[in-house]
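A reminder from the course coordinator: this example appears on the midterm review sheet, so study it carefully.

Given structure:
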């Protein structure tokens, strides 16, 4: 039986979901799309043989839609997720889960009563390079230092320069990738953070942040997002007592150093993550298993977002609320 999904927010990223769902995920199809641009939305609906809905409420209520994917700006996540959960239909929600920590906690309370737990699309968990890092993690021994950075070109998306839609900048939109990846790899929680932010090219929200954080086992974490450079780099470095890892999850490759020995793993970073995410979501719905990334993870990342903004305002380190 095919799971026919509806996509709310069929823009650049939502269109990727649409095309992967149709072509790369056996047992999944697209029944409807919702997009602000009616001409482009109608064209996408025609392409997938589904319906176009101007309003999200119409798509959620459409009997042809079995499950919903939300790919809209963060300001709309809470209301849309609330509506989908209230409808009783399964929901795959793009990160960040909501625009604020308060909204995340409210959504989690509603998720407890839903027949289908919310599936949060933290895409880096399906990056092949980072999955290799997770496989190698036990060889590192006690971890004392984790460093991660994403350096990206300035945004070309207009909504990311409208505070009412974006809510936050690089901390909220991109930092959640790093926060979730560190939690997923280490199995630990953040307890404290000291963060500094700046607006370099984006006049509305921060396009640079640097944070020094502490995990609940005492490990130190350094995190950076730079979205003002005309280049791109995404890397992770982990230093343990027994070994260390350096990973390039933009271009591919993992290096493990143990003593004087170096072991290189030629792992590609070019494999799209969305087919794997959609496939995992479909499997959860078929088996009834809990989502690999759920509301607790969403709350934990929003707790770090909240703490980073509090730290930047105060100019000092602050505690991170427990998820």
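Designed residues:
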């Amino acid at each position: 039986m095919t799971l026919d999904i509806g996509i709310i927010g069929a823009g650049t990223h939502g269109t990727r979901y649409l095309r992967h769902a149709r072509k790369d995920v056996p047992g999944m199809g697209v029944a409807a799309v919702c997009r602000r641009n009616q001409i482009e939305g109608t064209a996408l609906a025609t392409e997938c043989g589904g319906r176009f809905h101007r309003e999200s409420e119409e798509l959620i209520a459409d009997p042809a839609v079995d499950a919903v994917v939300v790919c809209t700006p963060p300001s709309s996540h809470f209301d849309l997720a609330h509506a989908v959960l209230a409808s009783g239909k399964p929901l795959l929600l793009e990160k960040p889960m909501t625009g604020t920590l308060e909204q995340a906690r409210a959504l989690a309370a509603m998720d407890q009563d839903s027949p289908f737990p919310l599936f949060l699309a933290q895409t880096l968990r399906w990056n092949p390079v980072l999955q290799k890092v997770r496989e190698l993690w036990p060889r590192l021994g006690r971890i004392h230092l984790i460093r991660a950075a994403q350096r990206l070109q300035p945004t070309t998306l207009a909504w990311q320069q409208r505070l009412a839609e974006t809510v936050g900048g690089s901390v909220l939109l991109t930092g959640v990738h790093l926060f979730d990846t560190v939690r997923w790899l280490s199995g630990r929680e953040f307890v404290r953070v000291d963060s500094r932010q700046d607006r370099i090219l984006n006049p509305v929200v921060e396009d640079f942040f640097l944070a020094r954080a502490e995990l609940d086992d005492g490990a130190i974490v350094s995190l950076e997002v730079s979205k003002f450079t005309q280049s791109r780099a995404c890397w992770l470095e982990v230093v343990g007592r027994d070994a260390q890892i350096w990973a390039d999850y933009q271009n591919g490759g993992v290096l493990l150093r143990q003593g004087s020995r170096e072991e290189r793993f030629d792992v590609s970073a070019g494999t799209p993550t969305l087919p794997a995410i959609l496939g995992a979501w479909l499997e959860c719905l078929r088996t009834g298993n809990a989502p690999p990334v759920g509301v607790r993870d969403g709350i934990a990342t929003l707790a770090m977002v909240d703490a980073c903004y509090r730290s930047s305002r105060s100019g000092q380190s602050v505690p991170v609320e427990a998820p």
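The chain has two domains: 3-123+274-293, 124-269+303-319. The chain has a mean pLDDT of 96.
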